[in-house]
Amino acid sequence: EINKKYSFQIAADFDTRVNNLHQRLRYDYYNESCPLAEQIIRSTVRELYDSRPDVAPALLRLVFHDCFVEGCDASILLDSDDDIESEKEAPPNESLRGYDVIDIIKSEVEEACPGIVSCADIIVLAARESVLMAGGPFYPLFTGRRDSMDSFIEIATYELPSPQDDLSKTIESFATRGFDERETVSLLGAHSTGTIHCNFFSNRLYNFSGTDVPDPSIDTEFLDILRSKCNTSNPTSAPSASPSLSPSPSSAASFHNPGMKMDYEGPRTGFGTLYYRSLLQGKGLLFVDQQLTAGEDTETWVRAYASDVSLFQRDFGLTMIKLSNLQVLTTPAGQVRLNCRKVN
Ligand code: HEM
């Protein structure tokens, strides 16, 4: 219900916001050349999700890491070869996953319409489906992106935000991509879903920034849960967590350390709300998440989203549209890769 109601609102806002910005992308770009493209992507994500629900967070994170680095051009998917130094090898991308999922979707789409649908469009459309699967809103997307012929490992290394960043750094980093504070707070609501491994927040648990004490912004009970969950002397232990957070199953990510599963999503509570409520209770996992409550304006948005799931869903949909349109390549730039991992 919530999804339906807010997709109408998002659609209305979408026309005014996006039309002027992206003349060269079109609504239903593959209407004639590959009319089933969006449907194939949708059904493939849904089928995969049925047996592997972790594909949804994987694909949602993937669109962020693609679009934030030189735009939504599928540069994140290129493997290293003689000419390419893959973005996949940049440290912030180390635990990124879902490349195999994109390969599966691409092969389904190629079977129907060879050489027509770009990997860049597949990433944004698959992420949209993932948001829906996680209980988030539907948002309309233009298509017609083309794929880059290069990968940008340096930009990925230095410009993707770090989980250790403080609020001003995060705001600045998102501002360089055109996002204001409200949009930044809403985008981080993506951390409602998926798994966050201990190594990304273990610095907060004992000796925070050389202070010999834990990060004071962590709720004390929550601190105990995190410590026992991340106890490195017993990395396979999976002590019970609070009702809203359950330990992750053995992770498909490249890190063989435990993590916390962000179990906040679901149609009942609405994707987002519990994430923001937990921030208000000092239960953010990453420093960067918890920092959203450290600024007056950002905290106002955290409070707003914690109490109004519909407002969050609307804002999140609009911000995902904006993210999906960052610096796109359109004809005659770029190409439609036949294999998402290689330049043609
Ligand atoms: C300041 C910005 C951000 C930072 C520093 C950040 C950092 C991280 C880190 C460290 C993880 C844990 C990865 C792991 O344990 O393997 C993570 C997970 C995730 N991030 Fe972010 N993130 C940011 C913004 C975003 C945005 C804007 C999105 C999407 C719109 C996003 C989507 C996700 C998702 C869905 C996961 C779970 C991935 C999974 O389960 O594999 N993040 N992020």
TrEMBL record:
<keyword id="KW-0575">Peroxidase</keyword>
<feature type="disulfide bond">
    <location>
        <begin position="119"/>
        <end position="340"/>
    </location>
</feature>
<dbReference type="GO" id="GO:0046872">
    <property type="term" value="F:metal ion binding"/>
</dbReference>
<keyword id="KW-0376">Hydrogen peroxide</keyword>
<feature type="compositionally biased region" description="Low complexity">
    <location>
        <begin position="237"/>
        <end position="254"/>
    </location>
</feature>
<feature type="binding site">
    <location>
        <position position="263"/>
    </location>
    <ligand>
        <name>Ca(2+) 2</name>
    </ligand>
</feature>
<keyword id="KW-0479">Metal-binding</keyword>
<feature type="binding site">
    <location>
        <position position="73"/>
    </location>
    <ligand>
        <name>Ca(2+) 1</name>
    </ligand>
</feature>
<feature type="binding site">
    <location>
        <position position="66"/>
    </location>
    <ligand>
        <name>Ca(2+) 1</name>
    </ligand>
</feature>
<keyword id="KW-0560">Oxidoreductase</keyword>
<keyword id="KW-0408">Iron</keyword>
<dbReference type="GO" id="GO:0140825">
    <property type="term" value="F:lactoperoxidase activity"/>
</dbReference>
<feature type="binding site">
    <location>
        <position position="71"/>
    </location>
    <ligand>
        <name>Ca(2+) 1</name>
    </ligand>
</feature>
<feature type="region of interest" description="Disordered">
    <location>
        <begin position="233"/>
        <end position="259"/>
    </location>
</feature>
<feature type="disulfide bond">
    <location>
        <begin position="67"/>
        <end position="72"/>
    </location>
</feature>
<feature type="site" description="Transition state stabilizer">
    <location>
        <position position="61"/>
    </location>
</feature>
<dbReference type="GO" id="GO:0020037">
    <property type="term" value="F:heme binding"/>
</dbReference>
<dbReference type="InterPro" id="IPR033905">
    <property type="entry name" value="Secretory_peroxidase"/>
</dbReference>
<protein>
    <recommendedName>
        <fullName>Peroxidase</fullName>
        <ecNumber>1.11.1.7</ecNumber>
    </recommendedName>
</protein>
<feature type="binding site">
    <location>
        <position position="87"/>
    </location>
    <ligand>
        <name>Ca(2+) 1</name>
    </ligand>
</feature>
<comment type="similarity">
    <text>Belongs to the peroxidase family. Classical plant (class III) peroxidase subfamily.</text>
</comment>
<feature type="disulfide bond">
    <location>
        <begin position="198"/>
        <end position="230"/>
    </location>
</feature>
<dbReference type="InterPro" id="IPR010255">
    <property type="entry name" value="Haem_peroxidase_sf"/>
</dbReference>
<feature type="domain" description="Plant heme peroxidase family profile">
    <location>
        <begin position="24"/>
        <end position="344"/>
    </location>
</feature>
<feature type="binding site">
    <location>
        <position position="161"/>
    </location>
    <ligand>
        <name>substrate</name>
    </ligand>
</feature>
<dbReference type="Pfam" id="PF00141">
    <property type="entry name" value="peroxidase"/>
</dbReference>
<keyword id="KW-0732">Signal</keyword>
<keyword id="KW-0964">Secreted</keyword>
<feature type="disulfide bond">
    <location>
        <begin position="34"/>
        <end position="113"/>
    </location>
</feature>
<comment type="function">
    <text>Removal of H(2)O(2), oxidation of toxic reductants, biosynthesis and degradation of lignin, suberization, auxin catabolism, response to environmental stresses such as wounding, pathogen attack and oxidative stress.</text>
</comment>
<feature type="active site" description="Proton acceptor">
    <location>
        <position position="65"/>
    </location>
</feature>
<keyword id="KW-0349">Heme</keyword>
<dbReference type="GO" id="GO:0005576">
    <property type="term" value="C:extracellular region"/>
</dbReference>
<keyword id="KW-0325">Glycoprotein</keyword>
<dbReference type="GO" id="GO:0042744">
    <property type="term" value="P:hydrogen peroxide catabolic process"/>
</dbReference>
<feature type="binding site">
    <location>
        <position position="75"/>
    </location>
    <ligand>
        <name>Ca(2+) 1</name>
    </ligand>
</feature>
<dbReference type="GO" id="GO:0006979">
    <property type="term" value="P:response to oxidative stress"/>
</dbReference>
<keyword id="KW-0106">Calcium</keyword>
<keyword id="KW-1015">Disulfide bond</keyword>
<dbReference type="InterPro" id="IPR019794">
    <property type="entry name" value="Peroxidases_AS"/>
</dbReference>
<dbReference type="InterPro" id="IPR000823">
    <property type="entry name" value="Peroxidase_pln"/>
</dbReference>
<dbReference type="InterPro" id="IPR002016">
    <property type="entry name" value="Haem_peroxidase"/>
</dbReference>
